[in-house]
User: What shape does this take?
Amino acid sequence: MKKSKLILLITLLLLVLSVIYYSKNIKTNKDFIVTKVGNEITVTSPKYKEIMKTTEKNIFVYKNEKIYGLIFIKPNNRVKVIDGLYRIGKFNKGLIPVQKEKYGTIDFNGKILIPIKYDEVYIGENKKAILKKDDTYLVFNGKKMKTLEVDSIYQVDNHKFVFNKDKKMGLMDFNGKVIVPNEYDEISSFIDKVFIGEKNSKYSIYNLKNEKVSKGYDYIEQVNNNVYRAGTNEIGKYAFVSPTFSSDEKYDNIIKVDNNYYIGNYFNNENIDLFNEKGKIKSDLKKDEVKKYLEGL
Assistant: This one.
């Protein structure tokens, strides 16, 4: 009999502890009504009319005039709400950038991973981030933070960003590791296999090993991913430039035909040259022959 009472007391104690834990961490909010049919979850509210779905089936956004809130649906239809948000950013690699007066991030379970106290937040891969507070940049690896010795940054993608230090630009990853040293006066904002780098008022194409893969030009314009038209003031014509090929400067324009092919136009001339990223594939092609030629490749 004593043994059964002890088991009952232990069971009741565990139940009380469980209730205390959930009441602290997940507060049921009476403003929202959760309906679950199969795997489909819907949220309605007698108080808030604007409730929007997100890319995550258990996360919803509500709006009250100019203030936003996030609704996280937990097991057993429990609701966790984070309110008072001025802005909710694009969901990115398991994180949600948010703004109150300052910026921070919330994970998909409703946990504030980066406190909402930073002037800027840039999200990278695997919940890594670059943060700015009081003119100081910090790199966050998902657990710890360390100071980043840069003057400013520009995010390129989830893996890398352009940084400025001592009035020179370079590339860095989200671990704070330098990919390309800061030795450029300017670096292009779009970077894939290569980037445009400026040194001493001349522009060239460089790869991510910091190797120069084109000669220097007075100007370079992007036509497509890793494809450019470039020229010098002296000649006044365009060259076709890619990571593996550069033509002569003799075209009045370089035009994208589709994502793989490009035309080099001559002024007042019906003939054109056809390129792909690897170089010239056809010379002196009539303009009305382009489509037929490409269909035959």
Notes: The longest strand covers residues 279-286. The chain has a mean pLDDT of 88. The radius of gyration is 28 Å.
